[in-house]
TrEMBL record:
Keywords: ATP-binding, Cytoplasm, Kinase, Nucleotide-binding, Pyrimidine biosynthesis, Transferase
Oligomer and partners: Homohexamer.
Binding site for UMP: G54, D74, T135, G136, N137, P138, F139, F140, T141, T142
SUPFAM superfamilies in alphabetical order: Carbamate kinase-like (SSF53633)
Protein's name according to its UniProt entry: Uridylate kinase
GO cellular component: cytosol
Keyword DNA-binding: no
Pathway: Pyrimidine metabolism; CTP biosynthesis via de novo pathway; UDP from UMP (UMPK route): step 1/1
Gene3D superfamilies the record matches: Acetylglutamate kinase-like
């Protein structure tokens, strides 16, 4: 076993990342690549929890934007995260990694419901646990779900694998000369209103003293490199 920088982690994968080059849905090639990264991290001795967003399939705000009921939209968004979790746990199982999806909204015919006790047991048995349906409540995001589960599971870090390679002074997709941070505090991210993760998630991680590591999910072996103390990422810690 290597001496890892973070032993128990929560990996947040954005739903959009799973689209690959498609404009919607799940690209199985991307799922398999991310699953490989998880497999390698686990082989190093990391204990891995996963939260996947739903933005590749559905976001609740899109219903509200058309005058519909936001709560119904959010229910649809949470169901999208369940689909992504099932795709990822399936890919992990297919490569011989024991993985179990746990949902915040009961659907016993499909997967086990989340309890902290049950999730810890699965993790201690060496399985990858995937948390589906976010927090289980409307008006939240999977970033908040990720911070919540990271706190509940006693994770050493919340690793946000996203489309960009860290936190910048402004959205790098809109402001090409934005400056990238290697490190920044939770308080400064909140103060500057940096949008890479929602404020509720950052505040929850700050309260629970959990560092957030923002890195590109598209960088093969990026996760492993960070666990080994290298890699390209922004580390948020106080
Ligand atoms: N200050 C910033 N630093 C980095 N990325 C930012 C920043 N502001 C906005 N973004 C954008 O935030 C996106 C990631 O946030 P979000 O869409 O919530 O991701 P996810 O779908 O992974 O939850 C990035 O793709 C980036 O374009
Ligand atoms: O605790 C939660 C988590 C997610 N969602 C819904 O699920 C959608 C997909 O999640 P998110 O936008 O966080 O996905 P990502 O941007 O990470 O792909 C959100 O837009 C919400 O509609 C929710 O209502 N409560």
């Amino acid at each position: 076993m290597e001496n890892l920088k973070y032993k128990r982690i929560l990996l947040k994968v954005s739903g959009e990342a799973l689209m690959g080059d498609q404009s919607f849905g799940i690209d199985q090639k991307v799922v398999a690549r991310v699953a490989q990264d998880i497999q390698k991290a686990q082989a190093l001795g990391a204990e891995i929890c996963v939260v996947i967003g739903g933005g590749n399939i559905f976001r609740g705000v899109s219903v509200a934007a058309q005058g519909g009921d936001r709560v119904v939209g959010d229910h649809m968004g949470m169901l999208a995260t369940v689909m992504n979790c099932l795709a990822m746990s399936n890919a992990l199982n297919a490569m011989g990694v024991a993985a179990v999806p746990l949902t915040a909204i009961a659907m016993p015919e499909i997967c086990e419901s989340f309890t902290q006790r049950g999730a810890k047991r699965h993790l201690e048995e060496g399985k990858v646990v995937l948390f589906a349906a976010g927090t289980g409540n409307p008006f939240f995001t999977t970033d908040s779900g990720a911070a919540l589960r990271a706190a509940e599971m006693g994770c050493d870090a919340l690793m946000k694998g996203t489309q960009v390679d860290g936190i910048y002074s402004a959205d790098p997709k809109k402001v090409p000369d934005a400056v990238r941070y290697d490190t920044i505090s939770h308080a400064e991210v909140l103060k500057q209103g940096l949008k890479v993760m929602d404020a509720a998630a950052i505040a929850l991680a700050q309260d629970s003293n959990i560092p957030i590591i923002v890195f590109s999910i598209h960088e093969p072996d990026g996760l492993v490199a960070i666990l080994q103390g290298g890699g390209r990422a922004t580390v948020v810690s106080d």
